[in-house]
Amino acid sequence: MAKNVKDQVSKVVIILIALGATSALSTSCGKNNNPGSPPVAAVPIPQIPIPVPVPNPCPNGYFFGGQCYQGASFDWACRSSGGQPLSGSSGRPLCEWEKFGFIFPSSYFPLLTPDHSNNELAWNTGITVKPGDRLEYTLTGSWGVREGSTDSFLGGFIYFSTWHLDCRDVSLNGIKEGAPAYYLNQPAGLMGTDGTEIFWMGSSGSVQIHNSGVLKIGINAPLHDAGAGCASISSQELYVLHCEDINGITYPCP
To answer: Which of 2, 19, 233, 246 is the most buried (most CB within 10 A)?
Structure first.
C-alpha cells in the first residue's frame, strides 16, 4: 500500500516538473531578447504611375493653327489654314506659314543690348516665334543722339551753347560717319531677341530662331544715349517663316 502511494506521488512530481518547463519555454519564446531594438517597419511597395494617353485632337485629319481639318488632305488642310504646302530637304511634306510683324512709331528709343539689361525698352513686333523658325527682314532707318557745342564771341567774353539732334547719325548696321561704331563688343546697330537669345540683325538678312517667344528689336546703344536720342525705323519686309510636318512638329523651312 505504501509503495503504491509513493509511486503515485512520484508521478505527480514528474508531471509538475514537466508543466513548469513547458511554461518557462513558452515565456522565453514570447519575450524580445533584445528589448533595445526598434520594431522593423514595413517597407511600402512603390507605386508606378500609369501614363494616361493624350487623346489625338484631330484623329482623322490635320491640326493646324489650333484648328482641326477633319477628313482633309494635307495640301488642302495646309492651304485652308493659310499655309503653303512644300517638301522639306528629305522629301518630308511640310506646311509653311508667313507671320508678318509691324513696327509702330513710339515716343521712346527702342533699346536692346547684348547684356539683356534693357530688354523691356525694345520694340515688340507682335510676331510669335518657335525653334526652327526663320526670320526674314529688310528695314530702313537710323538713330542718333543729341549733341552740343560751345562757342564764344567778343574775345571770349560771352559763351553760348548750341544743341542739335540728328536721327541719321548712325545706320542700322552700326556705321557712323563711314566707320563702324560699337557698344559692348557688338555693332551699334539693330539687334533682335526671341525673349531668350539676343542676336545681331542690322538692316537686312535672315536669322534662324532657337527659342519660343515674341520677336522684339532695338538699338544696341548705352542707356544714356537712348534717353537723349531718337531713332527712325521702317519696315519694308519683316516676317517669320514657320514650317510643320503632318504631325505638327516644327522643322526649319527650306
So the answer is: 233
